[in-house]
Amino acid sequence: MRSISTRLSSALFIGFVGLLLAAHLVLPLAVAEAPQAAAPPDPLPSWNQSQSKQAIIAFVNRTTTEGSPDFVPPGERIAVFDNDGTLWAEQPAYFQLIFAIDRVKALAPQHPEWQQQEPFKSVLGGDLKALAAQGQSGIAQIIAATHSGMTTDEFNAIASQWLATAHHPTTNMPYTQMIYQPQLELLAYLRENGFTTYIVSGGGVEFMRAFAEQAYGIPPEQVVGSRVKYKFETRDGKPVLVRLPSIDHLDDGPGKPVGIQQQIGRRPIIAVGNSDGDLQMLQWTTAGDGPGLAIIVHHTDADREYAYDRESHIGKLDKALDEATQRGWIVVDMKDDWSAIYPNN
Amino acid sequence: MRSISTRLSSALFIGFVGLLLAAHLVLPLAVAEAPQAAAPPDPLPSWNQSQSKQAIIAFVNRTTTEGSPDFVPPGERIAVFDNDGTLWAEQPAYFQLIFAIDRVKALAPQHPEWQQQEPFKSVLGGDLKALAAQGQSGIAQIIAATHSGMTTDEFNAIASQWLATAHHPTTNMPYTQMIYQPQLELLAYLRENGFTTYIVSGGGVEFMRAFAEQAYGIPPEQVVGSRVKYKFETRDGKPVLVRLPSIDHLDDGPGKPVGIQQQIGRRPIIAVGNSDGDLQMLQWTTAGDGPGLAIIVHHTDADREYAYDRESHIGKLDKALDEATQRGWIVVDMKDDWSAIYPNN
C-alpha cells in the first residue's frame, strides 16, 4: 500500500503541477480573450453611462469583431485626435501661443529693438488684447521669431524645457497635466482593440512631439501637425535640420485631411475633434466606403473646465456642431458625459 | 486495488492532460524566446557569408541586446530604405517613369494636341532619347499630365492597375517581382528584431503605397516619398483630395532627411540606399548620438541584374561611394554578397 500510496501521491503531484502550469498559462489567456459572463472592467471609467459612451463602445465592437459586416482589419483601424481642446485644454489661449509669448520674453534681452517694435512691444508690455488686434500677421511674426532659426534638436530641447517648467495662469497646473483623463482612457481602449491612435492637430508638429509620447503614449511618427520648412545643412561639421521662418503645412480645416494623406496615407475610421477646424477631418473620416465614426467634444463645463462654442475666438464650434446634429455624429457633453476632467483630480 | 488503480489512472490521466497542456503552451514559447544552443536558422539565407552580412547582424545584435552599451529601445529602432535600386530594380528607367510614359499613351486619344506637342510627341513616337534631351522640364510635364487632376483614390486605382498588368521591357517580369529577395529577408529580419522599416524614396509616395504593403510588407504610413500638393474639395457631394500639378515635397538628396523629420520625427539608426540621392539620408542616420548604420547597395552584377555606378544617369553612385570608403559604411557588392536577386529565381 505504501508503494501504491507513494505512486499515487507522485502522480497526483505531477497532475497538480501540470494543472497548475496549465491553469497559470491558460487562464490569463482565457480572461484576456474570451468575453466574460461576469461584468468586464469598464474600459472608460471616467465616462458616465451615456449615449456617447455606448455609441463609442458599440462602434469599437462592430469594427473589431471578426465576422461582423463592419469588421476592419487591425492595420486599417486608424483613429485621429485633434489636440487643442480635444486631448488637452486650450483656454485662455492655445498653450503653444503662451509658449511663444514666454519665448519672446526670454529672448527680449537679445532683441532690444523689440521694445519699440510691434507685435513684440505689446507682448512685452503684457497687452495681449493689442496683440490680438494685430490679427494673424502679429501672431505669425511671434511664431516666426520664436519657432525658427534653430535646429530641430535645439527646438525640441527648448519646448521640452518649457513644458517641464511652465504653469497655467489660472489653474497653476503644468500644461502637460491639463490633459483629459477620459481621453487617456479612450486612447488606451482603442489601442487595446488594435487601433493606431494619431494626433492630427493645427498645433506645431515638433511642439507636440516634445510631450505627446509621455502625456498620451503617442510616439513622434503618430503626430501630424503644422510644420515650418526645414533646411538640411552642415553646422560645425555635423548635418542638421534648420527650422525656417516659413510655413510648410498648416494642419487645420481642409489642411487636416491633407496632413492625414501625406503622413498616414489611409482614411481614418474614427476622428475626434472639438471645433470647426476639425470639420473637414470629420467629413473625410465618415466619407469612406466602410464604417466611420465622428466624435465632437463640446466644452460645456464652466465649473471644472471651460464652457464655449459658437462665439469663441479659440476653438469655435459652430458649423461642425450643426453638421453633427444633421448627421448624427457623437457630441460629447463634457459636463454630463465625463465624471473627471484631468488625471488625479 | 481496482479502486486505487482507477484513482491512480485518473490521477495519471489528469496529470498527463495537465502536462500536455502545459507542454503545448510552454514549449513553443521556450523555442521562440530562448537563444538556441544549436545553430539558429540563417535569418538572411540569400546573403552570402560576407563582411557585409556579418556587420549587419553584429549591428542588430548590439542594438537589440539589453545591457549592451548600444542598446536601442524598440520604439527608436527606425530603419529607412530607399526604393529604386535599393528594394527593386531601376533600369532601364525608374519604373514610375515607365508608368508615366504608358499613361501618356493611354491618355493620348483624349489629347489629340499631344501628337504635335513636346514632350508628348517624343513619348508617343517612342523616342525616349528625345524626351531625355528635354531634361527635367520634359519629365516634369509628363509627370504633371499623368499624376494630377484625379483624386487620391482614383490615382491609387490607376497605379494599382498598371502594377498588376505591366511587364518589364527586357526581363518581361511584372515590375513588382523585380524586388530583391535579400532585401525582403533583411526587412523581415529587422522587423523580427523590433525595428520599424520605412521606405524613404524619391519616388511618388502614392505610387509606392499602391504596392509596398503587398511587395515588402510596408504599410502606407511607413512610406515616405515625393508628393504633389493635394486640395480638399467636394465632388459629387463627397469630400475628396485632388492631386494638383505641383510638387509639394521632393524626397531626394537633402529632401530625404526633411521627409524623415516631417513624417517619422525621429532619426533612423539604419539607412540603406544605392545612389548619391541617398547620401544625406546616410549622413543624417550616422550623425546621431547613438549607434547608426549606413548601407549602400552597389550594382555590380551585369549578368543577373545591372552593373552601374559613377557614370550612370539613373542611380548614379559617386560621392556616396567615396564617402562610404572614407567612413567605413557597408558597401554591398550585389554580385559577391547576394546569392539570389529576385524571389523564386
**CATH architecture type of one domain in chain A:** 3-Layer(aba) Sandwich
- Helix-strand makeup class of chain A: alpha/beta
Shape of chain A: globular
What oligomeric state do these chains adopt?
homodimer
Note the total helix count of chain A: 14
Cα-to-Cα separation, first versus last residue of chain A: 66 Å
**Percent in helix of chain A:** 40-55%
Q: Count every beta strand of chain A, where a strand is a DSSP E run of 2 or more residues.
A: 8
Contiguous low-pLDDT stretches of chain A (5 residues minimum) are 1-34
- Most residues in contact: chain pair: A-B, 48 and 48 residues
- What is the N-to-C order of secondary-structure elements of chain A (H for helix, E for strand)? HHEHHHHHHEHHEEHEHEEHEH
**CATH topology-level name of one domain in chain A:** Rossmann fold
Sheet having the most strands of chain A: 8 strands, mixed
Q: Which CATH class of one domain in chain A is shown?
A: Alpha Beta
Rg over C-alpha atoms of chain A, rounded to the nearest angstrom = 25 Å
On the 0 to 100 scale, the average pLDDT of chain A is 90
The CATH superfamily of one domain in chain A is identified as HAD superfamily/HAD-like
Which band does the percent of strand residues of chain A land in?
A: 15-25%
Q: If you had to describe this structure to a student in words, what would you say it looks like?
A:
The structure is a homodimer of 345-residue chains. By secondary structure, chain A is α/β, with parallel strands linked by helices. Chain A has a domain at 51-91 and 176-337: HAD superfamily/HAD-like (Rossmann fold, 3-Layer(aba) Sandwich), CATH 3.40.50. In chain A, 43% of the residues lie in helices and 16% in strands. The first copy, chain A, is built from 14 helices and eight strands. Chain A has helices at 2-33, 51-64, 95-107, 120-124, 128-133, 135-147, 152-165, 181-192, 205-209, 212-216, 255-263, 279-285, 319-327, 334-337; strands spanning 78-81, 196-204, 223-235, 238-249, 270-273, 293-300, 307-308, 330-333. In chain A, strands 1, 2, 3, 4, 5, 6, 7 and 8 form an eight-stranded mixed beta sheet that branches. In chain A, α3 crosses α6. The longest helix of chain A is centred in the first third of the chain and has 32 residues, at 2-33. The N and C termini of chain A lie far apart (66 Å). Residues 1-34 of chain A have low confidence and may be disordered. Chains A and B meet through α1, α9, β3, β4 and α11 of A and α1, α9, β3, β4 and α11 of B.
